Each structure stands twice: as C-alpha cells, then as structure tokens.
Amino acid sequence: MKLSDKQLELIEQIGIYHENNGFQPAVARVMGLLLVSDKPELTFEEITESLNISKSATSNALNMLLNTGHIEYTTFPGDRKRYFRIRTSNWRDMIMKRMDDLGVLNALLKRVLEVRKRENSEYDQKLLSFTSFLDYMKVQFPILIEQWEKENQKQKA
C-alpha cells in the first residue's frame, strides 16, 4: 500500500498526539494509519509493511487497541484474514468513560483536601476551584451532548 507524503506526515502527527496521551509509539502510529488510510480496513500485513514495524509490535498494538475499544475487525467470506478499522461508532461511549474517569479523579482530589494538613491556602483554593469545575462539567456535559444531538438532527433533516 502506497501512502502519500501528506498521509505519512499526518500519521506521524497523530502518532505524536497519541503518544502524548499515553500510547506506546507503535500503538499511536497504528491509530494514525487506520485514520488516514484510503482503505476503510487494513490487514495485519498491510499495517506492518506500511509502518515498517515488526510483527510483534503490530500484534501488541492491535491487541491493545482492540482491548480498549479503539478499533475493531471484520472478516470476509472465503478470506481467513482479519481486517482492522477504527471504531467510529463508540465516540460517545469513549467520551463518557473519560468523564467517568474525571469523576473518579474529582472524588480523590476532594479526599486530598479533606485529609491534607498543609498550610498553603493558595494551593487549596486552586484545587478547590478545579474540583468545583469538574462538578460543573459533570452536570453540564450531558446537557451539551443533548443540545448537540438536537442541532445535529435539525441539520440532517
């Protein structure tokens, strides 16, 4: 599979973005490749060859992305290969999971404020402001999604 210079550059930029968010380099590049590829699904071999990474790195990256729900695979009758693609249908679930994760962090930070005995009121105020913002987001985010869905439905009509 031949990729253009623009596609290769974008794969790298997407890879760096995902690395900065905790992905391993190969995992990040696989995400980038699956996003920018002209083909909707890619085989294991196409991924390995396009990114010039080892079979082991490809396998580990695909397993991680499958386990975290970022990608899925399909098969075709008469073909034993698996074809991998980005899971675009789960964006809402992924955002809601991130919001749940922020809720856990918020609860932990509130406990920090309860148990800590520091005499640094400026730091405490900043932490309190952050937890207050997370409380606000928890209430407002579902409203924001609902508003977006209503507007999106109007645009489709």
UniProtKB/TrEMBL annotation:
Organism: Pontibacter burrus
Swiss-Prot/TrEMBL keywords: DNA-binding, Transcription, Transcription regulation
Pfam families for this protein: MarR_2
Limits of the HTH marR-type domain: 22-82
Gene Ontology MF terms: DNA binding; DNA-binding transcription factor activity
UniProt superkingdom: Bacteria
Protein name: MarR family transcriptional regulator
Keyword ATP-binding in annotation: no
